[in-house]
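Hi C.,

You asked whether I'd gotten around to modeling the 230-residue construct. I have! Everything is below, sequence then structure, no commentary in between.
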Amino acid sequence: MAELIILSPHFDDAVFDCWHAINQPQATVVTVFAGLPEQGTTTLWDRLCGQADSRKMVSMRIKENNAALRETSASIKNLDFLDNQYHSAKISIDEIVKIILASTPSDSSYLAPLAGSHLFRHPDHVMLRDVGVMIKGLGKKVCFYPDLPYMSIPKNAKPQYLQKLSEQASKLLGFPVSATAKKLSQGELAAKNRAMSSYASQFNMTNITSIGRLSILAKRDYEVILQPDN
């Protein structure tokens, strides 16, 4: 069976958005912007989250990610690219694609963030969306997922919502995609919430800055995948 590679910009994104996929056989969560910043690095976000030393914060987040995925059979792979808040230099999309393809089986399929928010599109998420588009252009199977809480999903996955999202995503990506809702059982939703709570250093501030949306979205019993029509 081919591996499913879930491209997660940061340590919590795959769990927030793709829990149903994480629990598929042969799934690997690849956190792309997982590099350790230089000693002495400090950022406003990390200080708000309670840790002035950004290197210690990333080390803590690695442990949180391991704990969040412990209930699953997914493999974990962390790449050394720096989170946007830790650098000012431009990162090469070509280099990210090269490393991802070199470190995953040639017959893998991929899941990448859509980065389709109308309010704020995190630059790391946008870059990874572009990585997904590039990998698709190389003939690989790539699907996309709405990235929460930047994007939101309604309480019920009605056909009208899925159709509208499909149209919006198709314009953003430059090729047609169709949105499909993936239902979570109550057991899966409970396990997902346990995993989400493992990201203790981030959850509260993320919830506050998203005006409480993260805690609301944690109750949604479905996730969405956007699959290319060709």
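If it helps when you're writing up: Residues 54-68 form the longest helix (15 residues).

Thanks,
B.
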